[in-house]
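User: Predict structure, ligand S-adenosyl-L-homocysteine.
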Amino acid sequence: MVHFIGAGPGGADLITVRGARLLGEADVIIYAGSLVNPALLEYRKADCQVHDSASMTLEQVVEVMAAAEAAGSTTVRLHTGDPSLYGAIREQMDELDRRGISYDVTPGVSSFSGAAAALCAEYTLPDVSQSVIITRMAGRTPVPEGERLRKLAGHGCTMVLFLSTGLLEQVEKELAAGGYPPHTPAAIVYKATWPEERVYRCTVSTLAQTARENHITKTALITIGNFLGEKYERSKLYDPTFTHEFREASR
Ligand code: SAH
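Assistant: Predicted complex:
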């Protein structure tokens, strides 16, 4: 059995209770060493075999899983954040299907949630934005044509960019071409929820400069939109003049 587990965004106590339990029971752990906090390995049992997938290929990862399976062992594949986002788990699961090895997935707290927490922000403010676009800038890894950043930017809603910290000059151009005014608030969140977390508030036109000045080149998320601004409407849910399923209007 292979358990794919979301490690959470960094803080070692931000893994789920289920994820921590499965980590503690694993005979073999394969973790994404480039992004997963090694402190999470402290949940492992004494005789557990540990592999860092940072220098491994898909084939090598699956070989380790298959060998563990043949020995009757349980494997945990530990991915950063939530495995459903840029986790490359589909190709592993397809390979396990081909080999008849069973698996399940335990979700994790994604770094985009960790970044909102670091900012003490709400991505979906009434009258400001009710949608969050999670995407990335096309770089060495392409993005489908229909999802070009300038097209998505046209919605003017909250955006969270993964894997784009090294491409901020292009990001700025794309956001401007999509229609975000230059003063639109933005923030760079470095290593959200890690002890070394840092937050830089700026605008869509000062992202590259802010990253440069603070030597941020990776492990950061770019958040964009007026959810970082001052203005919003309060929610209907807690509005005394608004009736809903659980509460009559009191005014
Ligand atoms: N599955 C992960 C994302 C993996 S892609 C998740 O749900 O968070 C790797 C990218 O995620 C990094 O390049 C960076 O953009 C972002 N990232 C991961 N952890 C982060 C953190 N703690 N703080 C800021 N960005 C992070």
